[in-house]
TrEMBL record:
<dbReference type="InterPro" id="IPR029063">
    <property type="entry name" value="SAM-dependent_MTases_sf"/>
</dbReference>
<dbReference type="InterPro" id="IPR008471">
    <property type="entry name" value="MnmC-like_methylTransf"/>
</dbReference>
<dbReference type="GO" id="GO:0004808">
    <property type="term" value="F:tRNA (5-methylaminomethyl-2-thiouridylate)(34)-methyltransferase activity"/>
</dbReference>
<keyword id="KW-0808">Transferase</keyword>
<dbReference type="InterPro" id="IPR047785">
    <property type="entry name" value="tRNA_MNMC2"/>
</dbReference>
<dbReference type="GO" id="GO:0032259">
    <property type="term" value="P:methylation"/>
</dbReference>
<dbReference type="Pfam" id="PF05430">
    <property type="entry name" value="Methyltransf_30"/>
</dbReference>
<feature type="domain" description="MnmC-like methyltransferase">
    <location>
        <begin position="143"/>
        <end position="223"/>
    </location>
</feature>
<keyword id="KW-0489">Methyltransferase</keyword>
<dbReference type="GO" id="GO:0016645">
    <property type="term" value="F:oxidoreductase activity, acting on the CH-NH group of donors"/>
</dbReference>
<protein>
    <submittedName>
        <fullName>tRNA 5-methylaminomethyl-2-thiouridine biosynthesis bifunctional protein MnmC</fullName>
    </submittedName>
</protein>
Length: 224
């Protein structure tokens, strides 16, 4: 798939897929979307001493970076194990041009950003003390064959239903739910009524939340 770099309204960059007419992030702001959906309405709502995060999908690595940024603000007396699935990894040139580390004050973030993207696929890597990343190159539907610990937090960040409707239907959500711990949280930028109904059918408590800039609503769902 041919991709090009675009700058979003908050100054952070995203990738645009020409064939699908689809951005990896909101054109209103890639960074602010990630922080609102996956940190404010995700990570900050989970209080486990060991947090196992499952991300669909890794994409540009921005969600990993904002998660590490938030982790560094804490007393770091907990551990994060971050598992990220991706079928179409981005290339070295795209990593360089996206340069997300430039949006963070921490001078170590350039090294952290590079370490995230240089981490071998299929192998757990300690990015910083207490934060472990395992990138897995696969189709999302291969999730059923992947051995994971019980997941406390899911970043459901698939491409939109307009271009990949099968990723927003019951079979994939069932696979995700099977990997989650009771009281685990799934957070996503989507607010589709069909998604809410699917999650409720799978015994999730679903709540509509205020969406990121440019989007009225999003979804949080707790596995009961």
């Amino acid at each position: 798939m041919k991709r090009e770099i675009k700058t979003t309204n908050d100054g952070s960059k995203t990738l645009f897929i020409n064939d699908l007419n689809e951005n990896y992030h909101s054109h209103h702001g890639a960074l602010q979307e990630a922080e609102h959906v996956f940190i404010k309405n995700g990570l900050n709502l989970v209080n486990d001493c060991e947090i196992n995060i499952l991300e669909l999908g890794f994409g540009t690595g921005l969600n990993v970076l904002v998660t590490i940024n938030e982790y560094l603000k804490t007393d770091k007396n907990h551990v994060i194990n971050y598992f990220s699935l991706e079928k179409y990894p981005i290339n070295e040139s795209e990593v360089k041009d996206l340069a997300y580390f430039e949006h963070f004050d921490n001078p170590e973030f350039k090294n952290i950003y590079q370490k995230i993207h240089l981490a071998d696929w299929e192998k757990p890597v300690e990015i910083i003390s207490g934060f472990n990343l395992k990138k897995i190159e696969c189709d999302f539907f291969d999730l059923k064959n992947i051995n994971l610990p019980e997941i406390n937090l899911v970043y459901f960040d698939c491409f939109g239903a307009r271009v990949q409707p099968d990723l927003w239907e019951k079979p994939l959500f069932e696979l995700v739910a099977d990997k989650m711990a009771i009281n685990g949280l799934l957070t996503t930028y989507s607010s589709k009524g069909s998604v809410r109904r699917i999650l409720q059918e799978l015994n999730f408590q679903v709540e509509k939340k205020q969406g990121p800039p440019g989007k009225r609503e999003m979804i949080n769902a707790i596995k009961l």
